[in-house]
């Protein structure tokens, strides 16, 4: 008999029409229930809850365009149809999560995973959809951060941005602030040493406490409820130094917001258009993607809300692998860009913050990890991983020609990334 993780059981029990083991979200919610979810997020104090798994957010995560204004990331050209070459061994690979060793198939039966996809040499070798259809879009959450990191790395490789210059050289609104002492690279690698971090403040409540400076920044862009008389950059300008730059990997969406603005400053285009031209229109995407736009200021929120189908997120990852040659543009991201990311980062900084410690737990077989250009984990073999709140993930192995992509509706503790690493090790044999 199949066992079910307690989080899964509670969420499935709360879903409307929850008769099947894995009800499809967009087929299960009645119009009346959808209206109730909309009303829920309109109530004061509830918008902040969209970042946490619950029955309302489970619906929102597959329908973010109902809750935020959006900017489109348009596709173009021929749709690339991914061929199949299924490998039954993948579902039998094992990993240990929360003290239990299970196969991937058992894990996907036990945890609230919406979809899980593995592409090897351009072929779908493993595919599983639980609570979403192949055509449904899902929020990437912080997976979207790499869209900014990758575009910045491209500009650095092309000599259009100097990573060692201070941030204020590219964003003059931050002149005569602490950002005169913070380099572009420290920001890209989330190692600024400044306060207003997302997890590492003393009380670990930055995303829920209205008195925390990170929360106040989220209010300034309209992501969270509240009144702010400052622009987002004015709020950021009040940050101050806690540690020397480059010493600690301290996860922070403010850094991504800054990186996005630097990319926009260098390209003179909005981030969503840059991602569309450089990636989405080159990869044979199935559909347009979209990104939430801040209610205040109209900023594309790539740190929080890229949305696409699972296949299209995987195709985005394919653009960093040799299989990109099969996609309509016929070319992958320049090796100089990929190597710039792989060779950046500081392993000694990795374990000094919340996020690094979390991923060291997930990747328990790997002793040397680092982060760079908004990727959460860079391995000694050059593989790359990025996660998002609620259990979203994109694992890319340029050398193994491998992509693992997954969406979840969890508390972020599923550790699908552990299985992604095991799959990469399986193909390395």
TrEMBL record:
Stretches of the chain forming a coiled coil according to its record: none
EC number(s) recorded for this UniProt protein: 3.1.1.103
Keyword Signal listed: yes
Signal sequence coordinates: 1-20
Record keywords, A-Z: Hydrolase, Signal
Domain Beta-lactamase-related, residue spans: 112-422
Domain of life (superkingdom): Bacteria
GO MF annotation, one: hydrolase activity
Keyword Membrane annotated: no
Protein name, per record: Serine hydrolase domain-containing protein
Top-level taxonomy: Bacteria, Pseudomonadati, Pseudomonadota, Gammaproteobacteria, Vibrionales
